[in-house]
Amino acid sequence: REAERRAIASALAAGQAVLVSGTPGLGKSRLLAEFGAADGLGVRSRPGDAERPYALLERMVLALRDRAPKMALTEEHRAWLARAAPALGTPMGGPDSPTAMARALGTALRAAQVGTLLLDDLHNADAATLDLLPLLFEGPHALELLLAARRSEWPAALKSWHAREDGELLALELRPLAEADIDSLLDELGG
Fold it and tell me: pTM (2 decimals)?
C-alpha cells in the first residue's frame, strides 16, 4: 500500500481531508491506524449511529475527555459539546448551531493535542456529525482528518462533501492487493 500511503501523506500535507474507501477487508482501518499512531484520535462509528444525531460526536468527545481529562475548554464550548455528550455538563440551550459545535470540537481537539482525527466506518455514522466535518476546515487549522467508509454505502453528507468543487476532501479507493503486495505484507507481519 505504498502508493496509497504516499497519496494520503501528500493530501494531508496539502491540507485536504482524506476519505479511504473500498469493500470490507481491504485494510482501510489498518491504513488509518498507521497515520494516527503518533498524535491521532481514532473513533469508529457503529451500526445504529445513523438513527441518533451526534452519536459519533458523542463518542469523539468522550474519547477526548478520556485522553485529556483536564483539557481547557470555555464553558460555552463545553456546553455546545454537552449537547452531544451530556456527561460533560449542562448542554447549550436554544437552536442547533453546527458552526458553534464544530468550533467547540476543533477547540477540544487542539486542547487535547490531537493532530490527526481518524474516523472509521463512516457508512454507519449519523448525518449531524458528518455535517460538522467540513466545518472543521473553515478558518485556520492544523488538524489532519482521515476518514474511512465503504464506498457503496457512503452517507449523503459524505457524497455531498466529496462533490464540492473546493477539493477539501480527497477520496481514495482501495483496490485488492496484488500477489506481490500480499507476499510483502506477510513478510512484514512475520508470516
Answer: 0.86
Report the C-alpha gap between 50 and 168 in whole angstroms.
Answer: 23
Q: Report which DSSP code applies to 125.
A: -
| Per-residue pLDDT reduced to its tens digit, 78-127 | 999 999 999 999 999 999 899 999 999 998 998 888 888 999 999 999 99
Give CA–CA dist 9/186, Å, rounded: 23
- Total number of residues shown for the chain: 191
Q: Which grid coordinates are listed for 104?
A: 467547540
Region of residue 85 (left: phi > 0; alpha: psi -120 to 50; beta: else): beta
Element (H, E) at 75: helix 75-82
What pLDDT, on a 0 to 100 scale, did the predictor assign at position 34? 82
Place of cell 444525531: 53
